[in-house]
Amino acid sequence: MQKLAELYSGKAKTVYATDDADRVIMHFRDDTSAFDGQKIVQLARKGMVNNKFNAFIMGKLAEAGVPTHFDRLLSDNESLVKKLEMIPIECVVRNIAAGSLCKRLGTPEGTELSPATLEFFLKNDALHDPMINEYHIRSFNWATDAEVERMKDLTFRANYVLKTIFLEADILLVDYKLEFGRFHGEVVLGDEFSPDGCRLWDAATRKKLDKDRFRQDLGNVIEAYEEVARRLGVDLTSSAP
Ligand code: TMP
Ligand code: ASP
């Protein structure tokens, strides 16, 4: 697999073309951003931890029947993935109230949401990722109705699988964000699943173990990510083949 030109650089990852038109390389950098890129800092080991964390979770989701773009780890900071045509929508599932939901609706942080709720956000930093609904998605042709149904189905399927995996590690999956794309006509999970894009609380103490530690300047950000990885059994030491 030959690494070719840089295709795109986001806030935390850079994507490279390969000699296979259907595959790209995702490089996880140490950059950590919040508030739509207003706050950016380098945190040592973050790229490696998120790369391996993502590989582990994508594997679990694939086993559970969620099609993902993930192929294999290439190195500490790189993974080979399918090249998707990304749908510009963030699918957020919330099991417990936190973050923007609390601000928007005045709900106290920590309120149980039963059943879990789902929200869509438009991926647009300049507009601060505004919340949108299914009618917006239809009117602006961001995705077809069938694709929206599939994204909802896969996002909730992921919730079932991941809530269980985290709970077995004494961690509450508070909320998370997924992004999907198209691969030869099929809706496939893309981007990443790491503590950057979800909220994870220790089940006993409710200590925050995710990017809120960075957003809220709580310290020990990567130590918390590594703690989650250790509890899940993610191998952070071995270097990839
Ligand atoms: P929110 O409370 O800020 O709306 O975020 C909900 C969850 O989705 C939280 O785990 C963070 C994640 N998320 C991202 O990772 N990136 C984003 O751009 C947005 C809007 C949310
Ligand atoms: N991922 C977004 C950013 O980096 C939003 C956030 O996580 O706060 O700005």
Molecular structure report:
- The chain has about 240 residues and is an alpha+beta fold.
- The chain has two domains: about 5-80, Phosphorylase Kinase, domain 1; about 85-220, D-amino Acid Aminotransferase, Chain A, domain 1 (2-Layer Sandwich), CATH 3.30.470.20.
- Helices cover about 30% and strands about 35% of the residues.
- The chain is built from six helices and 13 strands.
- The chain has helices spanning about 45-65, 100-105, 135-140, 145-170, 210-215, 220-230; strands at about 5-10, 15-20, 25-30, 30-35, 40, 70-75, 80, 85-95, 110-120, 130, 170-185, 185-190, 200.
- The strands form three sheets. Strands 8, 9, 10, 11, 12 and 13 form a six-stranded antiparallel beta sheet that branches.
- Strand 4 (about 30-35) and strand 5 (about 40) form a beta hairpin.
- The radius of gyration is 17 Å and the shape is globular.
- The two termini are about 15 Å apart.
- The mean pLDDT is about 95.
- Bound molecules: thymidine-5'-phosphate and aspartic acid.
- Aspartic acid (ASP) binds near residues 33 and 34.
- The site of thymidine-5'-phosphate (TMP) has 14 residues, from strand 8, helix 2, strand 11 and strand 13.
- Helix and strand sequence: EEEEEHEEEHEEHHEEEHH
Report the CATH architecture of the largest domain.
2-Layer Sandwich
pLDDT averaged residue by residue: 97
Strand-residue proportion: 25-35%
Give the bound compounds.
Answer: thymidine-5'-phosphate, aspartic acid
Helical stretch tally:
6
The CATH homologous superfamily of the largest domain:
ATP-grasp fold, B domain
Content-based structural category:
alpha+beta
What is the fold named in CATH at topology level of the largest domain? D-amino Acid Aminotransferase, Chain A, domain 1
Please give the alpha-carbon distance between the first and last residues.
13 Å
The biggest sheet amounts to: 6 strands, antiparallel
Give the number of DSSP strands.
13
| Helix proportion | 25-40%
Q: Any idea of the CATH class of the largest domain?
A: Alpha Beta
Morphology call? globular
- C-alpha Rg (nearest Å): 17 Å
How many domains? The number is 2
- Ranges where pLDDT stays below 50 over 5 or more residues in a row are none
